[in-house]
Amino acid sequence: MTTKRKFIATIVAAGLASAFATPAALAQSGKIKVGLMIPATGTFAALGTAIENGFKLHVAEQGGRLAGREIEYVKVDDESDPSKATDNVNKLIKRDNVDVIVGTVHSGVAMAMAKAAKDSGTLLIIPNAGADTITGPMCAPNIFRSSFSNWQSAYAMGEVVAKQGKKTAVTITWKYAAGDEMVAAFKEGFEKTGGKVVKTLSLPFPNVEFQALLTEIASTKPDAVFTFFAGAGAVKFVNDYAGAGLKKAIPLYGPGFLTDGTLEAQGENAQGLLTTLHYADGLNTPRDNAFRAAYNKAYKIQPDVYAVQGYDAAQLLGIGLKAVNGDMSKKDALYAAMKAARIDSPRGAFTLSRANNPVQDIYLRQVVGKENKVQNVAVKALADPARGCKM
Ligand code: PHB
């Protein structure tokens, strides 16, 4: 081939290459589509709002861009309904062609999302749902969590309650993955430290008809009650527990979801409750103070754990994107940077485990007025055991 012909051939080849380039490659300088799949209705609606607020606050602090790329949102209300989860997540992946999925609150919905993320290779960042299986047997390089595993928040409480000298406990929760896993983890921590779970009570999600179960607790007379409820369900449970006269008789414990974002509606009934969680009021670190001031300024309310998890989901994505200059087609480098990230979270800095789940301090908190006041660190740098994760 002559030099001139070679030159023309090169030009033609380059033209063809760009004409057939993948949408991902072309999108590098365009917007990043974030599929936000969270509850906007139902018992977890307020949790979804806090996650979205937190995520958007971090993006806003970066000027509306992560690694130079503008962020566009496509939203789905998942209603915390596992039966609609596969259709909902596939709309985001197949119809809307999102670059990353962020969601959700409910463990059952999140398990369907994790399966779809695995099948399609789409990046998934979970800003709440603790399903142990997602960072256990289902773990994958493209699935990350900015929140907690159900095991983490409840295991710590098992140790705390046993160390308080309680010998017997009844557990009560919704019958689904999160409730079952938190009860199992509490039992593990409690029984290892000398306690005994004498009864496990449950009702279907998202029911709140607690009376018959409260009567059973009263007649069983354990030393302690461990419970997982969240959102509107947690408000009603704490109020009903006190209303049944149980608050003074049998101390109530739970992961901090029981009293986070709910104190306004629980009022007097929540005062004094001890909970364990990876966030607390009164941490009084410069990082948390700055976050709280910014959140309060933007949304006119105090942030809760869900807001922090949303904020950190955006931070985690930002760290990954920065490492690949906003080019999401460089998946290996993107995931490697996310896995190695040290997130400067309002909760305290954390890293990710081999299963991409936060390794974090679990605080013991006590309700004082409208705050979940930090008491101490119940377990330092607690990592989920990631049982069954082959990665
Ligand atoms: C869950 O389903 O994993 C879940 C929901 C709400 C919470 C915590 C965990 O507050």
The level 1 CATH classification of the largest domain is: Alpha Beta
Count of structural domains: 2
Shape: globular
CATH superfamily of the largest domain: Response regulator
CATH T-level fold name of the largest domain = Rossmann fold
Walk me through what this model shows.
This protein is an alpha/beta fold and 391 residues long. It folds into 2 domains: 196 residues, Rossmann fold (3-Layer(aba) Sandwich); 127 residues, Rossmann fold (3-Layer(aba) Sandwich), CATH 3.40.50.2300. The chain is 43% helix and 21% strand. The chain contains 14 helices and 15 strands. The strands form 2 sheets. Strands 7, 8, 9, 10, 11, 12, 13, 14 and 15 form a 9-stranded mixed β-sheet that branches. A 6-stranded mixed β-sheet has the order 2-3-1-4-5-6, sandwiched between helices. α5 links the parallel β4 and β5. α3 packs across α13 and α4 runs parallel beside α5. The longest helix has 19 residues. The chain is globular and about 65 Å long. The termini are far apart. P-hydroxybenzoic acid binds next to loops.
